[in-house]
Amino acid sequence: MGLLLSACPSYTKRWEKYLEENYEDGDEQLLYIDVADFTNHVIELYRLNETEEFEPVFEVIELLHIQGDEFVKELATIGLLEDIQLSLTDKQEHDFFIKYLKPDSLKWWNYLIDFWSGKLFNEKTKSPS
Predict the structure, then answer these.
(1) pTM for this structure?
(2) Residue ranges of the DUF7674 domain (predicted)?
């Protein structure tokens, strides 16, 4: 979460409140749930047209896809990109985010769209590598 917090300082106070409300000292953090709260913040910023932090946020998502281990890569795809997509209501909203996606993230973004549209069930397409 440190990289995401660095990229999106506007999330810091919400993150601190989230930690206080959801964890006690010594609790193991549930990263998928933590990332879901971060994604909700990103969607709120989008709805408020406060997108100044999107460039660094999506640079971090790209970094997670490139340099992360398998768990981190999956978290970046399923925890971040898919949560963003599922929060959007139409193609226009999906298309808005394209300009922020870097090459690997864009590849996974499109893979998720194909997966949820059923396209991958009709083809013998493997996940992007």
Answers:
(1) 0.89
(2) 3-116
